[in-house]
User: What shape does this take?
Amino acid sequence: MTATMGPTASFRLITDMVPERDRIEVMREVYGRTVLKVDLDPLGPTQVDMKVRALPGLGIATGTSSEFRVHHSTSLIESDDLILLAALDGASVMKHRGREEAVGNGQALMMSGEEVGLNVIQPGGFRFVNMSFSLRELSPLIGDPARALMQPLATGSGPMRLLLDYVQSLQDSGDALTPETWRLATAHMFDLVALAMGATREAAEIARGRGVRVARLRAIKADIATHGGHGGLSAEDIARRHRLSARYIRKLFEGEGTSLSDFMLGQRLLRAHRMLSDPRHSGRSITAIAFEAGFNDLSYFNRAFRRRYDATPSDVRAGASKS
Assistant: This one.
């Protein structure tokens, strides 16, 4: 297990890093107390690989796990948090106030942490996003939280899809983010979950101009970073994938004081820079690397590369060979 402490404490819990005799207790302490404020019992050999983060008013756990049962323990302080469980792969059964709901692939469920009953992860393992939201902080955004409890929420589109993608992106960024960035990100996550649950009119207006915009822009940037090394990628391609208009996407980038074309160019240049710095590509010509990074015009590539890095592609390659 690895840990980073501070106002945004984070943990990486991998069972193979913990002695077998301590796994259950570590899981209870890191996952049960940090995110859900409940107790848990394994239903077989304990195998987990999860990232857990504690933020003011918000707990996050993402990863994979073997089967276990979640329940309240009288030794724990009662929590009025609202608990969100999203099943990305696998399934679980949630029991709450005598009501039972299955949560399978492509579904999420919100329940009260004060009354959580049983969560049985079914055989075969489980990949999930699990979050706890402070009821005191979330209630003003949604009015009556009870309306959304134990109501299956689709994860394939809308605010819930944005929330899950945003959370995964933040978890991947890990401790590279500043406390101020995490503070803003926490507000965005509250915006998105409020929209998914049924935000008040005022909260919805704020969320669409704040949390939704930021989450969409982050998802689009991640998409470009993954696929942006191809010169044929266009604004229209990105718009179709995210079910938005190309004009709206351009406005998102303009709101940051940049442009979609500049960001895409930066990603292609970054890809070229990484290949030029990688000894595994030392036998390839600069022309071939430029072409793979999405540049069809070598002169333009050289000019753009020098403007971005204040060095020529040959300089970067030579510097990598000396290190």
User: Anything to note?
Assistant: The mean pLDDT is 80. The longest strand covers residues 48-55. The longest helix spans residues 179-197. The radius of gyration is 23 Å.
